[in-house]
Here is the input.
Amino acid sequence: QVQLVESGGGLVQAGGSLRLSCAASGSIRSIQTMAWYRQAPGKQRELVAAISSVDITNYADSVKGRFTISRDNAKNTAYLQMNSLKPEDTAVYYCNFVALYRGASSYWGQGTQVTVSS
Here is the structure.
């Protein structure tokens, strides 16, 4: 059974930085896209950043220039480096992996809280 385990969330002051990690355990093959989503209270979950199997990246306009997504395929791990954090970045952050092996499978992490104080 595949599990995604996130770490690195916490409380930080505005202007600070955090680095989130998401590691997959279990039998997972052919991970195509690794992505980070977030959901703030009362809002819908939104895509923050995604990275393809050939390292093509995509970012939400609100985080461009501040966040960087990366991946380590040998470790089945995705990272999200978040700099110049703003109070509006406060949310629960979720990682999502999409794998293509005998069909498409989507996996989600349990979420990690990021709180940015002003």
The chain has a mean pLDDT of 96. The chain has no helices and eleven strands. Residues 37 and 46 are 5 Å apart (CA to CA). The first strand starts at residue 3 and ends at 7.
